[in-house]
Design goal:
The protein has 248 residues and is of the alpha/beta class. 43% of the residues lie in helices and 15% in strands.
């Protein structure tokens, strides 16, 4: 299947590792150009070099309000256009609803919700019909235990994605939310190590496919969602979780 991504250009955030990196690799493999945004310059530069000429690095923090515009400007200067973005944002620390401080909730707002909104705002200003895919979590549909800050932000962002799809749809723009379940990324490994996500075996047990997801499996779905082949797909929340999510 021709996904129609050759010479398309996307901003990919959180792109030095995990799901963002998986998405950048998959997009580039289909012929797209990627502006990869992340904070760790050394790791980011290494990954950009591995992808090759279709990738450019922007070392920046998504909590900086200027980062989205800088990323789009780099795409325009380097590749001559911009088509959309794969938006992967930070993961707040674990916590209970009442045991989490106001400051942690504020930090989660700054690291999860506001960066996503800012990227959408800049992309829509650059072109009225962007293709936008936002990395959420299965917590957008069903809360994860002891993850109150993430549950709050992912659920709120999911509703904004639906509204954004309504707003940009008349001009041909599309917006989707991707809900990864437990994918074997560095963050999941970290959570398993702290005990907040249980052991790996305990996590795998209730997943119908019986295993954690691989980052490249997520990257493939993200790439399809941003492609010409998904031209009638918008406003949707797409689970990439091995069948674990038990709500519609």
């Amino acid at each position: 299947m021709d996904l129609g991504l050759t010479d398309r250009t996307f901003v990919v955030t959180g792109a030095s590792s995990g799901l963002g990196l998986a998405g950048a690799r998959a997009l580039a493999a289909e012929g797209a150009n990627v502006v990869m945004v992340a904070r760790r310059a050394d790791v980011l530069d290494e990954q950009v070099a591995l992808i090759g000429d279709r990738a450019r690095a922007l070392t920046a923090d998504l909590t900086d309000p200027s980062t989205p515009q800088r990323a789009v400007d780099l795409a325009l200067e380097t590749f001559g256009g911009i088509d959309g973005a794969l938006v992967s944002v930070g993961g707040p620390p674990p916590g209970s609803v009442v045991g989490t401080s106001d400051q942690i909730y504020r930090d989660a707002l700054e690291s999860v919700l506001l960066p996503a909104v800012r990227i959408a705002r800049v992309l829509v200003a650059a072109r009225p019909d962007p293709r936008l895919a936002f990395v959420l979590s299965s917590s957008a549909r069903s809360p994860l235990p002891d993850m109150a800050p993430s549950n709050a932000m992912r659920g709120g962002l999911a509703m904004l994605i639906s509204q954004l799809a309504d707003e940009i749809g008349p001009d041909g723009g599309r917006a989707v939310g991707l809900m990864p379940g437990t994918i074997s990324t560095p963050r999941i490994t970290e959570l398993h190590g702290t005990g907040h996500h249980g052991s790996r075996a305990a996590t795998e047990r209730p997943i119908p496919l019986g295993r954690l997801g691989r980052p490249e499996e997520f990257g493939t779905v993200a790439t399809f969602a941003l492609s010409d082949a998904a031209s009638y797909l918008t406003g949707s929340l797409i689970a990439v979780d091995g069948g674990a999510l038990r709500v519609p």
